[in-house]
């Protein structure tokens, strides 16, 4: 069997625990499901939304000029 190259995002979300510093920095965690820290999945989605908003805003600026 082949091991998947792409890391899955099955990291534990533990509300009430401190955020995993490794996961916050890299969106990955070497301890995976065994990690005791919180892995907020919303972070990646929030960054994506931010990114899209930036693009939209840049387009608006261009059209104004
Ligand atoms: Zn972790």
From TrEMBL:
The keyword tRNA-binding does not apply. PROSITE patterns: ZF_C3H1. A zinc finger (C3H1-type) spans 14-42. GO terms for molecular function: DNA binding; mRNA binding; zinc ion binding. It comes from the Eukaryota. The keyword Zinc applies. Residues 14-42 form the C3H1-type domain. Keywords: DNA-binding, Metal-binding, Zinc, Zinc-finger. It holds the Pfam family zf-CCCH. This is C3H1-type domain-containing protein. It comes from Brassica carinata (Ethiopian mustard).
